[in-house]
Amino acid sequence: MNFILFIGLIAGFLTTVAYVPEVHKILTTKDTKGISLLWLMILLTGVFLWFIYGLGIYSLPLILANGISLSLIIIMLILKLKFH
Amino acid sequence: MNFILFIGLIAGFLTTVAYVPEVHKILTTKDTKGISLLWLMILLTGVFLWFIYGLGIYSLPLILANGISLSLIIIMLILKLKFH
Fold it and tell me: How far apart are CA A2 and CA B38, in angstroms?
């Protein structure tokens, strides 16, 4: 594996992991007041477009990180709609 | 400009904009209890590595978005250390 690909994979791991506390907080407290629907929609669209961009430039780190982040954001969105 | 570059720039704009409410909230309320130092450090490292990865693969959207996000995260970090 080349070095820059490795850097990208670590980057993707860290920024994806950064979503976990938020998902965990919502799951344990069932409180989604701190998260706005508009913010979730902006994030969902942004991360989806990063995923498409990753496919377009054949970037494995972008595809992996944004694919997993997308799943986490969809979980937050479902919980937001369910608990609100 | 090619289409995939355009997708990347829109993606970067949206995920960067997603940080703004958090920075604004900290600036107006001066309350940083909701943000953990560990989370900020993980995000800072992740976004910094995305920036390096962007330089490594010559990706303008990654360089721009993560460069600006990095500044916003550093602002949050300074405010966290200042108001805590």
Answer: 29
